[in-house]
Write a structure and sequence with these properties.
Helices cover 23% and strands 41% of the residues. The protein is built from 8 helices and 35 strands. The longest helix has 25 residues.
Length: 572
């Protein structure tokens, strides 16, 4: 029959290959259209329009059947509603550190075990550093020598403690090596060296008390014998004597011009002599140079080694600069050697818990090897990936409910500490990492898989109705006897005994949604419970439409059907 028709009309039946070719051409054309984002949006809208038209025709064709549809009725009621976004992830420690070594050698000490708690700078390992210790000692000696050389060249220092009796130079003077720049006297103690009759002196001893009488004033001071000569000396008149040295504290007015006699064991000295300073030293410049500073005033007190005069290097004297360069070099060598020495003692960089130990005392380790791992378990962290449609609802500080299969029957609380703007795109969908901190981490371990719910918003006293009762356009079907029926929509046809009212919604969960405007307590809503498949299909359609028409992060807010939150789209 088909063959006869073809012969009469002059047409031929297409073969299977031709049909297949045309089919693939159509598919390829649709794929090209779908790749264009602007055209894709219109394609989705067109499909939705066709579906709506079909539903409208079906509704007109079976109006009588729709009227007879059985609705589920439920009164409005106040209840607690919490809207959440769900996710999952793996727990991580607050911080972790892998301890490595920069040196190689034998491990002499490793006084810790896995599970031990350590603090920052706790010594974990000590490596054999005998060779470096020897170099450190040599570096210290070189540094000390360079320091002395520099101080000798750059300063004129007091050789003893005392008083600056005189200053012989001023700032700006050019000084030659060996030139006297100051005189320092130690006048805290004066000494008196006087002769005693040899027979009397033979009975004196060091430390014995002596009375010193000053000439002219005849003031008597108490002193001590510090030395008794063992040799006899003959004075004029064939007097055979021995000299005895006596130390006496200077009350403040004694000088080296004051003469005095002494009495020991009621034996008086053969004659008087002048008191001497304990020390009186001329301070000279070890190298020539220009006086850049006078550090002590004349009459001022100085300690042993204190700089009295400071020299600067100049064209006539480069000894100061050379000594300074040598000192700097020695300091750098010392620091480098000290740093090398420190590398042989390995310390904990953080407070935490030892989770593994790779080496023990007696082992030999190569440089760069991982020796142990430390976890900071003061709190735990979880990284959740949140879809671009929901990320706008997530804020730092929001509460997160954590549950773990490994810890049954217990819920932990976390807090969002970071919302990253660096998203990751996979198959056209972008997600953003959100960091959650869990301080209440008893029974939780790093590496555990957990489920998390971000508390987006909550209302403990919300006027609520079932999620499925909110239809497209935020319409709600209520009984004609409800108090809010007086606000019925005029342009919306409703089944007999019911009216449509316009509402505004707030927070929602998987089952109920808050009504902020349009309904009141005492109203009765009517709806047809949606199947899970229809809800899922509607949600996916809305997500696809939003992904094409809005920028990333343009979440659906707090209404029903939001991605990751409660599903349950409006009834059509």
């Amino acid at each position: 029959m088909n063959k006869e028709l073809q012969e009469k009309t002059g047409t031929q039946e297409p073969d299977a290959a031709s049909v297949k070719k045309k089919r693939f051409g159509v598919i390829r054309k649709l794929k090209e259209l779908w790749k264009n984002k602007k055209r894709r949006k219109w394609i989705v809208l067109a499909v939705i329009a066709v579906i709506m038209a079909v539903l409208a025709l079906r509704s007109c064709g079976s109006k009588q059947a729709a009227v007879q549809t059985a609705y589920t009725e439920e009164p409005t009621a106040y209840r607690s509603i919490t809207q959440t976004l769900s996710g999952s992830g793996t727990l991580q420690p607050a911080n972790s550190y892998v301890v490595t070594t920069l040196k190689q050698g034998e491990i002499l000490r490793a006084d810790f075990e896995e599970g031990d708690t350590v603090t920052t700078d706790t010594v974990l390992y000590e490596l054999d550093s005998s060779d470096v210790a020897s170099n450190l000692e040599k570096a210290q000696l070189s540094l000390d020598q360079a320091q002395r050389s520099y101080e000798k060249a750059a300063y004129a220092q007091a050789p003893v403690a005392g008083v600056v009796a005189s200053l012989n130079v001023r700032a700006g003077d050019n000084v030659q090596a060996g030139q006297t720049v100051a005189t320092v006297r130690d006048n805290s103690t004066m000494t008196l060296k006087v002769p005693f009759a040899s027979d009397d002196a033979a009975g004196f001893s060091v430390g014995q008390s002596a009375a010193v009488t000053l000439d002219n004033s005849f003031e008597t001071l108490t002193g001590k014998v510090t030395m008794v000569s063992a040799a006899d000396t003959v004075l004029t008149g064939n007097r055979i004597v021995r000299y005895v040295t006596i130390s006496v504290s200077n009350p403040g007015g004694l000088t080296d011009t004051q003469a005095a006699t002494a009495t020991i064991n009621n034996c008086g000295s053969s004659e008087s002599t002048t008191l001497q300073y304990k020390a009186a030293v001329e301070v000279t410049a070890s190298a020539g140079g220009t006086v850049s500073a006078i550090n002590v005033k004349e009459g001022g007190k100085v300690s042993a080694g204190q700089a009295i005069v400071t020299f600067s290097s100049n064209a006539q004297n480069d000894q100061v600069q050379s000594a300074s360069d040598n000192l700097r070099s020695a300091e750098l060598t010392m620091k480098t050697t000290q740093d090398q020495m420190d590398d042989y003692t390995i310390k904990s960089p953080i407070n935490g818990t030892i989770v593994d130990k790779q080496y023990k005392a007696g082992d030999r380790v190569e440089s760069g090897k991982s020796m142990c791992t430390i976890y900071d378990l003061s709190y735990l962290e979880l990284i959740m990936n949140i879809d671009e449609l929901d990320i706008s609802q997530v804020k730092v500080g929001q509460s997160v409910e954590i549950t773990a299969d490994a810890v049954e029957g217990k819920t932990f609380t976390g807090t969002i500490t970071k919302v990253s703007v660096a998203g990751t795109t996979t198959n056209g969908t972008t997600s953003y990492p959100v960091t959650v901190r869990i301080d209440e981490n008893e029974s939780l371990w790093p590496g555990m898989n957990v489920d998390a719910k971000i508390v987006v918003s909550a209302n403990d006293n919300a006027l609520a109705i079932p999620v499925g009762a909110v239809e497209r356009g935020n319409r709600v079907l209520i009984t004609a006897a409800s108090p809010s029926a007086s606000n019925a929509m005029e342009d919306a046809s409703a089944p007999e005994g019911y009216v449509y009212v316009k509402v505004e919604t707030g927070v929602s969960d998987n089952d109920y949604i808050e009504i902020t405007s349009g309904l009141q307590e005492g109203d009765t809503v009517a709806y047809i419970p949606a199947t899970a498949s229809s809800i899922s299909s509607y949600d996916q359609m809305m997500r696809d439409e939003a992904a094409m028409s809005g920028p990333p992060g343009g979440g659906s807010g707090g209404g029903p059907g939001g991605s990751g939150g409660p599903s349950g789209g409006p009834q059509g």
